[in-house]
Every structure is written in C-alpha cells, then in structure tokens.
Design brief:
Elements lengths: L7 E5 L8 E8 L2 E8 L5 E5 L46 H7 L1 E6 L9 E6 L10 E10 L9 E4 L8 E7 L11 E20 L4 E2 L2 E6 L2 E5 L27 E4 L8 E8 L2 E6 L5 E19 L18 E3 L1
Antiparallel strand pairs: 1-4, 2-3, 5-6, 5-18, 6-9, 7-10, 8-9, 10-17, 11-12, 12-13, 13-16, 14-17, 15-16
Length: about 325
C-alpha cells in the first residue's frame, strides 16, 4: 500500500451509519489481519485501500485553563471550544410515525461489572429528536418461575445514543444475580418532541421569536416567551448536553469564529429566565424550541432475553433482545 499505509475498514449498521470500533492489527509477511469489535450491529463492511498519501499541517489552538472557583468569571476569558461534530438532524414526525417507531425490547447488560443483568429497553425513532425525549417507567414488576412478584431494584439508565433507546435494568442487591426472572411487566410513558426548530440570537440581533438574549461575557441570559413550555417536560434538557454530542444542548453558544464554546460549570434559571456561562466571549447563542410534543403510553410484558455468551462481556452494543 502507498506509503506503508494500513487498510481502512469501515463498518455500517442497517441505516448506513458508521459504527465506532476498536482495532487490533496483526501483520504476517504480506498478509494484514485486522480483528475489529464494533459498537452496534454490523450490516455492511467496506475495506479501503489507500493508493497515495499526503501530508497536511494544521493550526492547533491551545489555551491554558484559568483558575476557577465558581465566582471569578473574569478568569474565564480564554476561549475553550467543544469538539466540532455534525449538526443535529431534526425531523418533523407525525403522531402515527411516533406510535410505530416506539418498541419495547428485553435485553441483557454487557458491562463487565454487571454482566447479563436483565434489562428493558424503550427503542425510539432513529432520529436526533429522540435525544430530547423524556422517558418514564411506571409500575414495573418482575416475576419468578411461580409467577410471584420479586423484590428487586429497577434502575433507569441513561439514554443510549448509539441504539436510540432508553434502558432500565434489574438487580437484586441481597439475592441472586443476574436476577432469575421469568417476565417483566409495567408501563412506559414517552413525552416526545415531534418538531424542533432552532432560534438564533446574536449580539446584533438579540431578540427573535419572543426570545431575548443578554450577552455579558462569559454569561448569556435568555428570557423565554411565556408560550415556551420549557419547564415540562423539557426542563431537564434546557442547558444540558446529549450523551451523543453537545450540538443537542438546549442552549449552545459560539464566539466570533463561529465555533461552539465549552460551558462553564455555572448555569441556572429564575422564572422564565435561563442563564449559562461559557469559556470565552459568546457572541451568538442558538436555542432549541420544541414546536409540538406528543405523549405515548405503552404497557409491556416481556420474557427475559437469552443470556449473553461470556465472550461478549465488556463489549458495547446490543447483542441479544426479545421483543414483546
């Protein structure tokens, strides 16, 4: 290969999304063997063979982190940037699209420290709207071989961005693990943003669509319109970050370069006003506004998913599942 470059292996899922991987490469004479583990389910694999290589020099911006005690805002003048990522792809969905796009699945946890713990996953539509959905489990129970309720702990886990699902898992802190359940039943309530639009506020145009921003570096304060129902169910997300990438944050600021700034560990709200601090000098802030919410409630009664093979311990992704 050109310049001694290694082959590039790209794996994609059924939606054509490139999967994250960890690689170990073994060379033997003229044979290159690549053993790769991927996050998710592989639907296709491409092997790219470089025919020529080139060298490129890049300018790197490095800033020293100022001393920060939570009050000395003036020490946060150095600009610190978020990792640049793709922009979110929000899609306008109908109520019927949402109803068909929500699925309940039994699975197993594959983390090494809680391997094979039974879990229930709420799968959501595979669009970026799903990062902002609010999922709640209610009246969850598990049953043993005699169909008797079991006294186990149900834990709602964080949003799984790779699989577009909201999982919850079961553990018996005083008994047998993984929990030997025969079925899990309950109800899930999903508040879902069918439509999302972006409102952009700048120092030169601080008022748009009923929103008003005040820029006082490093702080940005936004007055939300009364009709913005941000407190329910969006309140948990208004200044937060998605587990996938920060572009999903409800409030995202950038400086004169157009690059997104890192948030300071300082944010809050008062009435219909939100404020957040950023590293550097924010000159523009983008606010996500949900144009339509839809609530979906579904009951589930699922048998446990089959146990995972020990070889899968510690691997990411969903490996076995059981639909209702």
């Amino acid at each position: 290969l050109a310049g001694g470059a290694d082959p590039i292996v790209v794996a994609r899922d059924a939606d054509g999304v490139r999967l994250k991987s960890t690689e170990s490469t073994q060379m033997k004479r003229d044979v290159c063997k690549i053993d790769t583990r991927y996050t998710g389910t592989v639907a296709s694999v491409e092997v790219l063979l470089p025919t020529e290589t080139a060298t490129r020099e890049l300018d790197i911006i490095a800033t020293k982190e100022p001393e920060w005690d939570g009050e000395k805002f003036g020490e946060a003048k150095s600009s610190r940037y978020e990792k640049e990522d793709r922009e979110p792809n929000f899609v306008a969905l109908s109520a019927s699209d949402l109803q068909d796009g929500i699925d309940m699945i039994a699975a197993r946890v594959n983390a090494s420290f809680e391997f094979n713990r039974p879990s229930v996953h709420v799968h959501l539509p595979r669009v970026d709207n799903s990062h902002l959905a609010v999922v709640e489990f209610e009246d969850v129970q598990v049953f043993d071989a005699d169909n008797q309720p079991m006294d186990v702990e149900f834990t709602r886990n964080g949003y799984d961005a790779n699989n577009h699902c909201a999982p919850g898992s079961f553990e018996d802190y005083s008994g047998e693990n993984p929990v030997p359940l025969t079925r899990a039943a309950g109800k899930v309530r999903v508040d879902y943003p069918l439509g999302i639009e972006v409102v952009t506020l700048t120092q030169s145009a601080p008022e748009q669509a009923g929103y008003k921003a005040t820029f006082d570096a490093p702080m940005v304060t936004i007055e939300f319109p009364e009709e913005d129902d941000s407190d329910s169910p969006f309140d948990a997300y208004w200044a937060g970050s998605s587990s996938l990438f920060d572009a999903i944050a409800r409030m995202r600021a950038s400086d004169e370069t157009g690059r997104p700034l890192k948030k300071l560990n300082y944010s809050g709200s008062s009435g219909n006003t939100r404020y957040c601090g950023y590293w550097g000098n924010p000159t523009e802030i983008r606010v996500l506004r949900v144009t339509a919410w839809q609530r979906v409630e579904k009951e589930f009664d699922l048998p446990p998913a089959p146990l995972l093979d020990e070889a899968l311990a510690g691997m990411e992704g969903e490996h076995t599942r059981c639909r209702q």
